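Continued from yesterday's entry.
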Amino acid sequence: MSKMDRREIEAQESARVLLVDDDPGLRNMIGILLEKMGLQCTAVESSEEAMLCLENQGYELVIVDKNLPGLSGLQLARIIHLLSPKTPILLITGYASEETAREAAALGVSEYILKPIDIDDFRRTVNTAVRHTSSRPDRSAKRFRSTFPPGTLPSVVARLSMPPKIEMQDDDTPSVELLRGVAVLLIERDDNVRLRLVEILGHTGSQIVSFTSVHQARAHVERQGFDLLIASHGVLASARNLIERAPKPPLGTIAIMRHGGLDEVIDAIRLQARGVLSPPFVTTNVMLELGRVMKGLADERTARACAS
């Protein structure tokens, strides 16, 4: 075994996981599984207990059940992502819907896991998340603690605990003012899809540049960069290199999926997409999704400003 492999295993074995689930049976089962995997698991049953843990300890991974009493799992996931955006969040649900999956994507959830849990898939997901976090070059001895100064967490939670809402204008079109001036890079091979999305985006005040392939987009990215990437599943699966070429880190990505539905939204979440656009590209639906995504990204910018 190489020294690199040994260090990676040691880092993973020392990784801390916060598990939040109000079902004692499932909580105990997952906790035992995590400990058998060599992970240090802290298991709590409510969002309030989770917040206390987050004030005092850093974690490489957080696993949250969506339906928690009081502050919901989705709201908790939103707060955790804002406090520590580099920490992966696995959201577990037994009542899956496309709408809640889209909300989870906009809030920065890393994985959307359906009940009943497949043990092998769950183990692989956890291993991948922890390995990625533990191997980050900027990983400090204190792990990814909250970026907020001590004592400020309660007020931040009070401000951020509500789910994101998109204000509607009189004509029932969602407000996407947050897109005004945003540099949007659209990569789509299908001419009809690309032109339709360019037409819709033209009403947002964003700065749109579109290409049919990553190869065509590369020079533009290196020269001017972009804020928001909208691209097909295939492009996002290999977009890491493209994103790294940008002069500054982009705000996020949105996936173009051919059929829509829960399964494709979950696939998009696994590609770290913050939203999903699917045909037919109705203006109101596209605007709603764009508004949802940009609201989540704007909240992250606000959180970083509060921390500085």
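--- second protein ---
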Amino acid sequence: MAAETKGKTFLLTGAHGFIGAWVTKRLLDAGARVVVFDLDADPRRLRLIMDEAEVARTKVVAGDVTDPKALPPVFEEFGVEHVIHLAGLQVPTCRADPRLGAMVNVVGTINVFEAARLSGGRVKRIVYASSAAVYGSGEDSRAVSERDEPQPSTHYGVFKRANEGGARVYYLEQGVSSVGLRPLTVYGVGRDFGITSDPTKAMKAAVLGRPFHIRFGGRTDFQYVADTADTFIRAAVSGLEGAHVFNLHGETVAVSDVVLEIERARPDARGLVTFEDAPLAIPSEFDDAAIRQALGRLPSTPLAEGVRATMERFTQLQSEGRLDASDLEQ
């Protein structure tokens, strides 16, 4: 991946979010130039996984993705070649304020595509975050593929589905290629918001020796965040043309198995982490054959390894007095 990214200029929206922080780190490690466009100028999640020298290598531009005039001059000033669009509001915020959710998630995405359209062909492709939430409730008996009809059951899912349709129109009418990726349950250092953040919070709580209750159970598709970040980057530097949407797949396991891995990594935490019986109201497993056919072999960290790496980083942050536990309050 380093050969495809070294010296290239990437613009990331929402890079101070969870996945965005990891995409930033992986791009810097690969020698890319990274421009961060974010309403939140605080790089607190970057500092969880990067040192100050790495953080300083990112160029941060504070701005509002809902402002149609904000992005085009940034694209021009920095000669942006690749765009990874991660800015968005999650399910709880979209449920509490659908109007705000639509402005950020839908209008904000349109603004990103408009800026790419106005780049004079320099930006060949946008990679953006869609979501498993486009499917709504799913069946546990089989893996869901892109051939299954999306039936979102939340405003968030509706907004993400609208973005997929909008991306298709931008290709048909303006020739702007795109890849939308649908993650399911992504875990790792920095994940601190939304119900699917609970397994990561449980890992942090175990390191701190505190009890924690995961608000769902059953089986779901867990993907380690470094793998998710690498897949976004792989899609950004691919030669794919058109408007593509792909499901992502990690390792489909029961929440109880995640708890066992937490306890294996931290035996003194045995019994601290509990969970609900009810599964998430989204499909439990994705079929990722389509993206593997398009992009080839993708990174896939085993659950045990991902849990161990996450908890080791939490332990290091704790030893440095930098492990924030405010997200553990339920």
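The mean pLDDT is 95. The first helix runs from residue 2 to 5. Will compare against the first tomorrow.
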